[in-house]
Amino acid sequence: MLDFLTHLDRRWLFLAMTFALVLPLLWPARLPFRVSRMVQDVYDQVEHLPPNSTVLCSIDYDPASQPEIEPFTRAVFRHLLRGGHKMVIITLWDKAPPIVNGLIGDVIEGEYVRGTGFFEGHPHPEYRYGTHYAYLGFKAGKETVIAGLGQNFRQIYPADSRETPLSRLPVMDRISSLRDFPLIINSSAGFPGAKEYVQQVVTRYNLPFVAATTAVSVTDLTPYYPAQIRGLIPGMRGSAEYEQLMGYSGNGIAGLNVLTFGQLLVIASIVLGNVIFFATRRRERLARTQGGA
Fold first, then answer.
1. Which of 5, 17, 4 is nearest to 267 (CA)?
2. Which is it for the CA torsion 211, 216, 221, 225, positive or negative?
3. Main-chain phi, psi angles of 90, to 5 degrees
4. Domains of the chain
5. C-beta of residue 235 within 8 angstroms of C-beta of residue 218
6. Residue 41: burial class (beta carbons within 10 Å; 0-12, 13-18, 19+)
7. What's the pLDDT at 25?
8. Which residues of the chain are modeled with pLDDT < 50?
9. β-bridge pairing 54-60 and 184-188
10. What's the maximum distance between 2 C-alpha atoms anywhere in the chain?
11. How far is 210 from 54, CA to CA, in rounded Å?
């Protein structure tokens, strides 16, 4: 057995990793996990919004980070819609507009308005663009844009992505700066994103702000939690936890399962490799001892 394991073709390990990554996607398993305080705080901020609130959603990520952050973005969209809230959506990333349009088409105009997916059998045809939600589009300028939104929202965004003046969008009534939103939600993969919001406007105006970010960026944002960032979603794990709070299994939980099984296989391979190494050394020592005798 030891000889067999010692000369095992490494391609079998690659095949095992393939199965560990693919099978959880084909047959999802509900592995138990605990919801962290940071994720629970994001959920509570949305859950306790005043009725019929208008929330700002800043979607700031690209296709490379989409698999890690978008499960949360979809979940929080559903959460806001389930609560009957209005949404104003912007982006500061030039590669994000197709992503935002996809989210609006799938979650808002698809699931919620037509009553499919998460809202199966409960259509809301009265939820209309301009009255209940609006997409203002991409705006270049990074921190300058964020700082300007904190002072005069309409000066930065005089019109939406369809070139409709904000004065003609009922959802923008009584919105003149970021201070008029009861909650700001930022899905951010880097710069500009959550840190820039904190530095430019959140601290200055004491704004209610929550964020989702990639796992590698969590350590940069943790010092701002919970004073400036009132809730924080840490990568795929946080997305899965939010889906669990919402009561459904989506790409966040599926992705977490893939990470879990993949990491378990890596750990098992490391342990097995060390067992083989020490067993081989022991057999060599015994062979030298017997040969010397």
1. 17
2. positive
3. -135, 170
4. 2-22+258-292 (no CATH), 32-248 (3.40.50)
5. yes
6. middle
7. 65
8. none
9. parallel
10. 97
11. 15
CA dihedral 8, 10, 16, 18 (to 10 degrees): -160
Strand partners, 54: 86
Q: Which helix (H) or strand (E) holds 4?
A: helix 2-6
152-210 per-position pLDDT tens digit: 999 999 999 999 999 999 999 999 999 999 999 999 999 999 999 999 999 999 999 99
Predicted pLDDT at 29: 65
Residue 83, classed as helix, strand or coil, is coil
- How far apart CA 103 and CA 87 sit, in angstroms, is 12
Verify cis geometry, omega within 30 degrees of 0, for the bond prior to 125.
no
CA distance 217 to 244: 22
What one-letter code names the amino acid at 206? Answer: N
pLDDT for res 257 = 63
Which residue matches tokens 């104003």? 88
| CA–CA gap between residue 19 and residue 239 (Å, rounded) | 23
